[in-house]
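[Discussion] Sanity-checking designs against the backbone

I'm trying to build intuition for which residues belong where. Below is a structure token string of 84 positions. I'd appreciate it if someone posts a full sequence so I can compare it with mine line by line.
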């Protein structure tokens, strides 16, 4: 059961990484990256590394996601600049 669950986590990690890279919308890419970080935190927990799991959850899924979202909302798109 443990090996099967690890394989599921690895498949989800690869899928979310590819989705984040190929996402056309920046906000969608950030949300997918946050999911990637949460899955990675679960993987660290399964590998019995709770300190890394907490760090990944706090920094990867928490702080980094918030900073990316704030940055996206504070910047303007080129299409908006061309209209003005």
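Best answer:
Here's mine. Compare freely.
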């Amino acid at each position: 059961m443990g090996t099967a669950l690890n394989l599921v986590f690895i498949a989800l990690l690869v899928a979310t990484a590819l989705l984040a890279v190929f996402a056309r919308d920046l906000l969608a890419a950030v949300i997918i990256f946050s999911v990637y970080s949460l899955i990675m935190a679960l993987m660290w927990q399964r590998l019995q590394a709770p300190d890394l799991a907490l760090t990944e959850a706090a920094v990867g899924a928490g702080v980094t996601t918030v900073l990316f979202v704030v940055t996206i909302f504070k910047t303007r798109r080129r299409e908006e600049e061309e209209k003005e």
